Amino acid sequence: MSKTYKTSVNSNYDFELSEDNVLALDALKTAHNSFHILENNTSFKANIIASDFNTKSYKVEINNTTYNVQINDALDGLIKDMGFEIGASKTVNDIKAPMPGLILSINVNEGQEVKENDPLLILEAMKMENVFNSPRDGVIKSIAVKTGDAVEKNQLLIEFEN
Fold first, then answer.
1. Domain map of the chain by residue range?
2. What is the C-alpha separation between 85 and 81, in angstroms, rounded?
3. 94-160, CATH topology level
4. Which end of the chain is flanked by fewer CB atoms within 10 Å, N or C?
5. What's the pLDDT tens digit per position in 15-69?
6. Distance CA 144, CA 157 (A)
7. Angle at 52 between CA 50 and CA 58, to 5 degrees
């Protein structure tokens, strides 16, 4: 039994491809992300310009025309039907202490814009320094602690604006 893929091109054209259709494609790789395709005695030059593995979306240039292509298989359809999305990120709105400890330093201020992985604060716990990095891009709404504070497990440390 052949797998089927639901394909959307430029969000306007939807069609299904079987694994057999893909295997029967007369395509030759000419360079990294470049292909020569022969279909019904017509030659096509294709380049994959961009790809996003998480969303299974691709930007493809064929004979100097650019197309946005989305490819989903049966599992993607099932996950969508269940109300989940592959690659979707959850929004973290606050950071809480994972364990009791002592705040050694705070590297941000309220109202400051931060990028994902920017260092926010350092918590000393069990004789180890734990650096808390920003889980997302955002703006610091409030800082519930100050340097030198002793904190308990699950105590609010930093809150992000929504």
1. 4-81, 94-160
2. 9
3. OB fold (Dihydrolipoamide Acetyltransferase, E2P) (2.40.50)
4. N
5. 898 888 888 889 999 999 999 999 888 999 999 999 887 788 999 999 999 999 9
6. 5
7. 50
SS3 per-residue string spanning the chain:
CCCEEEEEECCCEEEEEEHHHHHHCEEEEEECCEEEEEECCEEEEEEEEEEECCCCEEEEEECCEEEEEEEECHHHHHHHHCCCCCCCCCCCCEEECCCCEEEEEECCCCCCEECCCCEEEEEEECCEEEEEECCCCEEEEEECCCCCCEECCCCEEEEECC
Q: Does residue 33 contact residue 48 with C-beta atoms inside 8 Å?
A: yes
The type of residue at 107 is N
| CA distances to 57, 130, 135 from 2, in Å | 22, 50, 40
Identity (one letter) of the amino acid at 142? S
Token pair belonging to 46: 């294709």
Length of the chain, in residues: 162
